[in-house]
Amino acid sequence: QNRRKFSSPASLLSPPLPPPAAQAQPRRFSNVGITARKFSQTLGWGGKVGAELTAEIVDQGRALCAQYIRSRLKRTGIFSKKCGLQRLRSAATLPGGFVVRQVLPELISIGAELERLHPKVYTGVGRQISSLPGGAASSEKALASALTCVSKELTRGQVTWARVVSLFAVAGGLAVDCVRSGHPEYIYSIVEAMATSIENDLATWIAENGGWPGLCSYCKPPSTEISLSSFVGFLGALVAAAFLIVLILRWFGRFAI
C-alpha cells in the first residue's frame, strides 16, 4: 500500500540531493526552512515540458488553488462574499474546467485529512513562516515570498503528490490568516504565488506524472474487480474441468449420452 500515507517524514523518502549551484534566491523569512520541514514531516506518504503544456498545468493549478481556498474558508466557517472569490465559484468557467472538476474532490479530501491530522501545522501558517510582526499575512509581498520559499523547501529532493497537496494546504492556511486579519483581498496574491510556484517548481514533475489527473490515479485504491481476460480464463477452466469429469464418468460407465 502506498496511498495516503501521511505518518512517515517525507524527508526520508529519498537521499538528499547535492546543493544547487549558487544563484539569486528570493528573500527568505527566518522561520521558513524550519516550518517547511514541519510541513514535509506531516507527509507519509526528465525532459523539458512544452510551453503549451506548462501553461495548461499552471492554469489548472491556479483554478485548483482558488477552489481549494474556497473549500478551506468554508470548512473554517469564515467564507463570505467579502472574500472576493465569487467569480471563481464555478470551476467549469476556468481553463481546464473538466480536469479541475475531476481532481478537486481528491485534492480537498487529502488536504482536509492533512489538516485534521496536523492542525497545529496548518493553522496560523503566516506566523509560523514569518518573523514579521503581523506574520506573512501582513502584506501581499510577504505572502508571495513566504509561499514561494515554502514551495522551494517542500520540493527540494524528491517531489511527491503528498508534498504537492501539502503546498495547497499551506496556501489554504495563509488564506485563512488573511481573512482573519481583515485582508481578504490578499487572497488573489496567494493564488498567483501558487501559480508561480507550480510553474517554477512543479510543472515538469506534474507533466511527467500524468498531469493533475495523476493525483486521482495516485489516490485510487487497487481495483478488486475481475478483468475480462481473467473472467474468460476462469470460465474456460470451468468448461475444461466439466468436460474432464464427463470423460471420467463415461470411462467408468457411469454416464451415458
What can you see in these coordinates?
The chain is mainly alpha-helical and 257 residues long. The protein has two domains: 10-16 and 24-219, Apoptosis Regulator Bcl-x (Orthogonal Bundle), CATH 1.10.437.10; 225-257. It has nine helices and no strands. It has helices at residues 32-41, 51-76, 97-117, 125-128, 140-154, 161-180, 187-208, 213-219, 228-251. α2 (51-76) crosses α7. The longest helix has 26 residues, at 51-76. It is elongated and about 95 Å long. InterPro entries: Bcl-2-like_sf, Bcl-2_BH1-3, Bcl-2_fam, Bcl2-like. Belongs to the Bcl-2 family. Residues 1-25 are annotated as: Disordered.
Q: Which class of secondary structure composition applies to the elements?
A: mainly alpha
Strand portion, in percent? under 5%
Order of helices and strands: HHHHHHHHH
Report, as a whole number of angstroms, the end-to-end distance: 53 Å
Largest sheet: none
CATH architecture of the largest domain: Orthogonal Bundle
Secondary structure: helix percent: 55-70%
**Which fold name fills CATH's third level, the topology of the largest domain?**
Apoptosis Regulator Bcl-x
What's the CATH class of the largest domain, please?
Mainly Alpha
Number of E-type strands = 0
The residue-averaged pLDDT reads 76
- Low-confidence stretches are 1-30, 44-49
What's the overall geometry? elongated
Radius of gyration, taken over Cα atoms and rounded to an integer in Å: 25 Å
Write the CATH homologous superfamily of the largest domain. Blc2-like
Annotation field: number of helices: 9
Please tell me the total number of domains: 2
Keywords: Apoptosis, Membrane, Transmembrane, Transmembrane helix
Transmembrane segments: 231-252
Main location: membrane
InterPro entries: Bcl-2-like_sf, Bcl-2_BH1-3, Bcl-2_fam, Bcl2-like
